[in-house]
Write a structure and sequence with these properties.
With about 375 residues, the chain is of the alpha/beta class. The chain has 17 helices and eight strands. It has an eight-stranded parallel sheet with strand order 7-6-5-4-3-2-1-8. α6 links the parallel β2 and β3. The longest helix has 19 residues. The two termini are about 35 Å apart.
């Protein structure tokens, strides 16, 4: 026993000499951080909002006192920016880095600085900021059949996004374009072949992440087969789960196996899977039952924007946030009325209607990614 007591500090000293850090037995930085957070802080981390939603202001192009004050009151998990927020290279970097610094100072955690940068028709930076040229659409990239080209496209994208201070891109679009009548994903999809879309999505994501920008595969369970536009209202596919598994779900299954950090769940309806017209983002059967349990995904699930017509046409902002969270989402993107959604979620968490174990599960996933960003 005396020998063991002496051996432990000797081993620790030897490991430190070799440059290996030694943590106390059983210590876990994520769990330590989680246990130190208040319920308010945990709930705030679930929200990703526009800078205008955060400050209740007009179009934001800087992060100054209003942003700092708003984040001190509600330290959200992320801010999503649009082309109107992105001015030039120095101004954009100053804005994102200031917002991130506020988050670090207030919470000890980085901010998810996000935007939609897909290439082609959906670009918030390329083609809008001097010095950054527009990129091809993913349909054009997919048509080459060249995964090296897709990865190179992701690298270029990731390089300028990282340079501007962004750390999460809501791309790639992993939807298989199976319905010719679908106008939503058309040129945004890599193509009609699930294997091609899988390979291209993984390659683009690898390119992004090689530059330190997290990729987000979207729009689970696949928007390419739908009729209708969830931006405006109801969108659905009549496919069965078996049909989806052989087609639309293939790229998402590949992303799960590839270790995806983020997955976006869309608002489409699957009446022949769920038996009703519940949007998938609000469906426990789809989000938790299929994506989490059947497919084994344990990364961050983010909703598609909750201010879209498919959601606002049937739920208040508070109802939508609660339903999406209880369905299995970890991050709640752009509720129509952010403050109402936050207060509703906080009230339900404090009353126990949202179990603390469920809240902690989502915050734990968020902390895991954020604390890795700090290393």
């Amino acid at each position: 026993m005396k020998g063991m007591k002496l051996l432990v500090p000797l081993l620790a000293g030897a490991l430190l000499t070799c440059g290996v850090s030694v943590q106390a037995a059983g210590s876990d930085p994520v769990e330590e951080k989680l246990s130190s957070m208040t319920t308010q802080e945990k709930v705030a981390q679930l929200f990703v909002v526009t800078p205008e939603q955060l400050t209740d202001g007009v179009e934001v192009t800087t992060a100054g006192a209003p942003t700092l004050t708003a984040m001190a009151e509600c330290p959200v998990g992320g801010i999503i920016y649009d082309s109107g927020n992105v001015t030039d290279i120095p101004g954009t970097y100053a804005m994102t880095s200031a917002a991130n610094a506020y988050s670090e100072n207030i919470t000890g955690l980085p901010l998810f600085t996000m935007l939609d940068e897909e290439g082609g028709e959906v670009e918030r930076v390329a083609g809008h900021v001097d010095g950054i040229s527009a990129l091809p659409s993913m349909a054009e990239v997919g048509a080459t059949g060249n995964t090296a080209y897709a990865q190179q496209t992701g690298q270029v994208m990731g390089q300028y996004l990282k340079f501007l201070g962004f750390n999460v891109d809501l791309a790639p679009v992993a939807d298989v374009y199976t319905n010719p009548e679908n106008t939503v994903v058309k040129t945004r999809s890599f193509g009609t072949d699930p294997s091609l879309v899988s390979a291209m999505s993984l390659a683009l994501a690898d390119g992004l992440e090689s530059q330190g920008v997290c990729a987000t595969y979207k729009h689970f369970p696949g928007h390419g087969a739908t009729a209708g536009d969830t931006h405006e209202g109801y969108a659905y596919t009549d496919k069965t789960l078996e049909e989806l598994t052989g087609d639309e779900l293939v790229p998402f299954a590949a992303a799960v196996q590839h270790g995806a950090k983020f997955m976006m769940v869309g608002h489409i309806c699957l009446p022949n899977v769920t038996g009703d017209n519940t949007p998938t983002s609000l469906s426990y059967q789809v989000t938790t039952g299929i994506l989490r349990n059947t497919m084994g995904y344990d990364g961050i699930i983010i909703t598609d924007a909750l201010n879209m017509g498919a959601i606002t046409g049937q739920c208040t902002s508070g109802e939508a946030a609660v339903k999406a969270f209880l369905a299995g989402a970890d991050l709640l993107l752009m509720p129509e009325d952010f403050h109402s959604a936050y207060q509703t979620m906080l009230s339900m968490a404090e009353s126990g209607q949202i179990p603390m174990e469920r809240l902690d599960a989502s915050v734990r996933r968020i902390l895991t990614v954020k604390m890795a960003m700090q290393q």
